[in-house]
Design brief:
Layout: H1 2-30, H2 58-69, E1 72-77, E2 80-85, H3 88-97, H4 128-141, H5 144-148, H6 151-171, H7 177-194, H8 204-223, H9 239-267, H10 277-285, H11 296-303
Antiparallel strand pairs: 1-2
Helix pairs in contact: 6-7, 8-9, 9-10
Amino acid sequence: MATADMFYYLLFLLWCVTALLVHFFIKTFLKSRSQNNLPPSPPALPVIGHLHLIGPVLAKSFQTLATRYGPLMQIRLGASTCVVASNAVVAKEIFKTHDLNFSSRPEFGSSEYFIYRGSRFVTAQYGDYWRFMKKLCMTRLLSVPQLDKFTDVLDEEKVKLVESVMGCATEGKLCDLNCEFTALTNNTICRMTMSTRCSGSDNDADQIERLVKTCLQLAGKLSLGDILGPFRIFDFSGNGKKLVGALHTYDRLVERVLQEHEEKAEKGFEEGERKDLMDILLEIYNDPAAEIKLSKNDIKSFLL
């Protein structure tokens, strides 16, 4: 019985290797190169592409390759092909000169588990929604006048950081500056987003912050599955199921915070009262004359 099982396992493995080799042969040898004007690329191996050239420090690996193949090169990581820009001049060409050509974002391995699929500004395709959200960020959400309204928040958080460091010094304890600066950043962002601190407090903002970290970590692990090509649909590690569960928990918590902000908006804002990002997004959500009608999923996805 064990021998028969081993035979079928080997047969399945042989089928997988054969399928990958055929796929590589079709893409590499049968595709007409005359149709493409691609950047220079190092010699690739079958199936794994250039993975053998990538060391533990990704930036150093790309820097080493760039010294030989130039500031713009093509890299193949398993079944995924990408283009790497390695200097400021090329990056400016991509992000400024040819901004519209690079506006649309690809979907990564984690996108099929994303419960707000189609509502994510970061990976949205270029179109009306993308243009509206970009304009909204530039003119209201992240504009200089909006950020200036929160200078006191940043000052308060910096004071708390200094007090925490001084407390460690007084007590003769080691101070983890990485954790302290992370707390400073997270608390500032949370207060600008939903008017409440997250670190060191047992509230929705604290749970949301931890869930966002979990979602980003799981999404990163799933995106590595892109190198497997067609086999990425199989959630071998179970990270896809974990990501869906974390996103549903995040959805419930953010929905509760949104309801609190809606109740506050119904009572009305006092003259000169500061609005956080969630207040502004809800204002556009409730505006019947808005250029693009935002959904609550759009808001939740943007905050994530």
